[in-house]
């Protein structure tokens, strides 16, 4: 009998994670959802289980808690679920001048966007490598490649995941595991994102995507072994143009974009 294939997706109760979970379900993978213990988690679990002929299991917990990654791993081991696809999606960002955001917010951001992703990758790596074909997808952002002023810590967490993913991709090249990083531009998901997109003017709106547009591109890219997955034609064009510019000009343009969402008194002139 063929072994069942499970996809574990963190932050899958809503937003990009939910769309990635649904895309995995559509492709016949059994889904393991991990997110905060909220009604949305159970609602999404029920929706997926009643829409697709697959198993869907959910674990509600705060991933920023010290033992959470180990609890996630133990949950899969106790139930004898072999994770074939690990999607490190749960993460969040905040935008403002560096010193205007509470240090505790940065600590939680670095924990969720980096440490938790690394710990989950570390714990599941032996199991992933033991399979003839398996996949690890980390959530980056276009800001993994473009260092965005006024989002200094968020952009740094996404650079960290970018470097980690590219490096690990090469380290496991002679195994069945393929490691990718997903680098979306703005995606309409939560209220915070909506505020930033509104503030970002026509530029942000032009490259705006929906989670349901991003997910099929992401999973297709993951299964075809792409190192870096940038969804959306305009995003690829922007990254291409940006890479041709000298660094001071790149950063001046990014400063303008990064300032658009700030109240006028917080903007740097020039
Ligand atoms: N949206 C964008 O424009 C955009 C662009 C590029 C990259 N990204 C990246 O894509 C990923 C998903 O972003 P999104 O916009 O889809 O976010 P979202 O709509 O806010 O959803 C985040 C998901 O993560 C869960 N989550 C948040 N904190 C958690 C915690 N401490 N423990 C467990 N689960 C937690 C949330 O659960 P609850 O629903 O219970 O809160 C939710 O399921 C992030 O890594 C983000 O940085 C987003």
Which short descriptors sum up this protein?
single chain, 270 residues, alpha/beta, Rossmann fold, seven-stranded parallel sheet, 10 helices, 7 strands, binds NADP nicotinamide-adenine-dinucleotide phosphate
How would you portray this structure in words?
Helix 1 crosses helix 8 (211-223), helix 3 (68-78) runs parallel beside helix 4 and helix 4 packs parallel to helix 5. It is globular, with a radius of gyration of 18 Å. By secondary structure, it is α/β, with parallel strands linked by helices. It has a single domain (6-266), classed as NAD(P)-binding Rossmann-like Domain (Rossmann fold). A seven-stranded parallel sheet has the order 3-2-1-4-5-6-7, with helices on both faces. The protein is built from ten helices and seven strands. The protein binds NADP nicotinamide-adenine-dinucleotide phosphate. NADP nicotinamide-adenine-dinucleotide phosphate binds next to helix 1.
């Amino acid at each position: 009998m063929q072994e069942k294939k499970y996809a574990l997706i963190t932050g899958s109760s809503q937003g990009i994670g939910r769309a990635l979970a649904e895309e995995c379900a559509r492709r016949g993978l059994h889904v393991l959802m991990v997110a905060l213990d909220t009604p949305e988690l159970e609602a999404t679990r029920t929706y997926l289980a009643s829409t697709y002929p697959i198993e869907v299991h959910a674990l509600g917990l705060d991933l920023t808690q010290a033992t959470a990654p180990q609890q996630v791993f133990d949950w899969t081991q106790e139930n004898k679920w072999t994770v074939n696809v690990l999607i490190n999606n749960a993460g969040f960002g905040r935008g403002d001048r560096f010193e205007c955001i509470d240090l505790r917010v940065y600590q939680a951001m670095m924990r969720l966007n980096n440490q938790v992703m690394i710990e989950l990758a570390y714990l599941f790596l032996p199991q992933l490598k033991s399979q003839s074909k398996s996949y690890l997808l980390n959530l980056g952002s276009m800001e993994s490649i473009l260092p965005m002023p006024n989002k200094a810590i968020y952009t740094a967490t996404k650079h960290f995941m970018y470097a980690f993913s590219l490096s690990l991709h090469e380290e496991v090249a002679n195994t069945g595991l393929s490691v990718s990083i997903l680098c979306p531009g703005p995606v309409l998901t939560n209220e915070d994102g909506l505020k930033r997109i509104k503030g970002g003017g026509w530029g942000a709106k032009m490259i705006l995507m929906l989670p349901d547009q991003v997910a099929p591109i992401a999973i297709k890219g993951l299964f075809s072994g792409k190192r870096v997955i940038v969804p959306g034609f305009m995003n690829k064009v922007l990254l291409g143009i940006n890479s041709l510019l000298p660094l001071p000009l790149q950063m001046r343009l990014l400063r303008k974009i990064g300032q658009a969402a700030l109240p006028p008194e917080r903007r740097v002139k020039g």
